[in-house]
Amino acid sequence: MDELNELIRMNNVHAAYHGDIYILNGVSLSIKRNKITGIIGPNGAGKSTVLKTLYGFLKPTQGDILFQGESIVGAQPWNMVTRGAAYVPQNRSLFNDLSVDDNLRLGCWHFRRDDLRVKQALEKTYDMFPILAEKRSDLAGSMSGGQQRFLEIGRALVLSPKLILLDEPTAMIAPKVSQELYQFIRSLPEMDVTVVLVDQNVRQCVEVSDYTYVLELGKNTIEGSREQFGDDNSMRAMIKDWLDYQID
Ligand SMILES: Nc1ncnc2c1ncn2[C@@H]1O[C@H](COP(=O)(O)OP(=O)(O)OP(=O)(O)O)[C@@H](O)[C@H]1O
Ligand SMILES: [Mg+2]
After folding, report:
1. Same domain, 127 and 245
2. Domain carrying residue 201
3. Do residues 95 and 148 share a domain?
4. Atom 4 in ligand 1: which residue has the minimum CA distance?
5. CB 218 near ligand 1, within 6 Å
6. To the nearest 5 percent, what fractions of the chain are helix, strand and coil?
7. Residues 106 and 179 reside in one and the same domain
8. Angle between helices 115-128 and 100-107 (to 10 degrees)
9. Minimal-distance CA residue to ligand 1 atom 7
10. Mean pLDDT by 10 residues, the chain (248 residues)
11. How many domains does the chain have?
């Protein structure tokens, strides 16, 4: 039963960018279908590297990654697109000198020859994010940070993915817009989208996520559900010192 609910499993994954300088030193995660899984941890812990490894930018040297029960070790990022996975990286990834509409069309690259699907994908995105419809002819780079973040997420969603990897979606975004973003992220499972959320904002991440993993020095340490990290629990006590450093 548990396996049916599991979209991705990472088993004891080790990965390095160069030679034997390992950044991931045995990461094991279970990503449940139509749930939000959070990953928190200090700077440089390897959170973004986990997402890059899941998406095929980095190949594990040890361990396994299963997507719907099938190993995807060695899969390339474009294979992940065809499998229904989308990725919004930590570093801004828009084409600033292209319009909002053209950025969204680039998200449709995989099915660019299917005019009807492109049209429907754009319409759906504009319905979801009216601000993007309003600004569809504006240059992406002319929009506010928050609007750009919505565009990046919108561009990932044109694929109608079953999985979306979000790396620090609210970093350097005004608090009010962050709340809108979190609210939107919370609504994704209702649209049949499984979410992996990497976030520096520990407090928000454990509240938004159904289940959260703490990553330290390339290894997952503490983990627990939203309830377990809840107010009166020892799990929360374990990350309390860290929470005190959070700005929100
Ligand atoms: N392309 C790369 N080549 C070599 N080393 C890298 C590369 N990207 C990241 N690293 C190193 O890997 C380690 C983990 O980086 P990563 O970006 O995964 O951490 P993070 O937990 O996402 O941190 P942050 O909270 O700052 O985003 C760091 O020591 C970083 O310097
Ligand atoms: Mg990062």
Report:
1. no
2. 1-84+164-185+193-248
3. yes
4. 17
5. no
6. 40, 25, 35
7. no
8. 120
9. 17
10. 82 96 97 97 95 97 96 95 95 95 96 96 97 98 96 97 97 93 97 96 92 95 89 66 54
11. 2
